[in-house]
Structures are given as C-alpha cells and as structure tokens.
Amino acid sequence: MSSSAERRKGIVVGITGASGSIYGVKLIQTLLELRYDVHLVITNAGWRVIKEELDWNTADRAAVLQEKFGGFAGQYIYHPIADIGASIASGSYLTDSMIVMPCSMGTLSGIAQGVSDNLLTRAADVMLKEGRQLVLVPRETPLHAIHLENMLKLARLGVRIVPAMPAFYFGPKHIDDLVDFLVGKVLDSLKIEHSLFTRWGEQSEQQGQ
User: Fold this and answer.
1) Measured between alpha carbons, how far is 147 from 130 in angstroms, rounded to an integer?
2) pTM of the prediction?
3) Exposed (0-12), middle (13-18) or buried (19+): which is 168, by Cβ within 10 Å?
4) pLDDT tens column, 104-136
C-alpha cells in the first residue's frame, strides 16, 4: 500500500440525496488531506440535501466547492451528474476505488440493477465491471425487503456495505466524533491509514505503556 505522503490514482466519491451529507464532506476533506485526488459527483438531490443540512450556498456550485475543498494537498475534480462523457465513465480511465457516502436507496437500487442513467451510477458500474473496490454507505431507516435484497446482491458481488451506524464505545463527545468514526470505518474498508478515531483497545494499551 502506498503511504499517505505519495500521490495515488484518484478515488471517486459520490454524494446522493440521502441524509448525512456531512459524512461525504468529511470523507472528501480527509482524502484530500491524505494527498488523494478525488473525483467528485453529486446528484441533484445530493445538492438539495447539502443546502438543507449544511446551509451551503449552492447557487454557485463551483465557488462553494473551491471554498470547501480547495487548498488541500490532494486535488478535487468535480464532474456534473449529467456528464456521461466524463473520464470516470470509462473503464479505461484508471481509478483506485469509489465510495458513495451517503448512498440513497434509489442510487443503491440503480447500482444493483445495473442502471447507468447518470454519471454516478455509471461510475459505480465501471467499478463493478473492472473489479475495482466499491464502498456504499446507505443511510435509511427502517429498511424493507427490497433494500435488504439489493444490499445482499451487491455484497455478493464484492461491494462493501458500510451502513451509517456510528459506534459509541469510544466515548464520543461531539457530533464530529461520530462523523469521524464513520469516515474512518470507510477508510478502513479501503485499507487507507488514518487517525480519525481511537480504536478499541488502543487507549488501554497506551495507558499500560
């Protein structure tokens, strides 16, 4: 595995209209800090939720993306959702992996059924056909049988399903602690080193030294 000080091929990050856009934002910022290049795709519903949950001025998308994701060691490349000719729509364009965080049930269903009706679902389809790592972070409750069947189908294809279920055993004090934990679990799925949370057993080991 390359160290975080080395530039790697890009990672695709999708943000959909599920609640929890803060997760995706933190993920992108962390990857950029670790010198990864991020190919960013946001659905129209994703932009709506970002505006509602984070109070971003999404009227000027280019400006708000530069404000939130500019100036990091890694670079972000924004691809409009309708740009089916984007680089990440082709399997010949090399990327390391893709994360959809948060992932709506509509997007998850589209990926499970092979429906490539926008750039995000097409990019996910590329990950599947090229045998690359795909991580989905569904955020929905309760779940009905169709949701569960779609997740099972994808899991059997090798997709990592990481539900937005933060833990509490590490003693979180703020919402940011819960966000960091979940983002850290996603990075763990891709074997990307980070220091977003204290792992179980680490604190007692440090105290015993």
Assistant:
1) 25
2) 0.91
3) exposed
4) 999 999 999 999 999 999 999 999 999 999 999
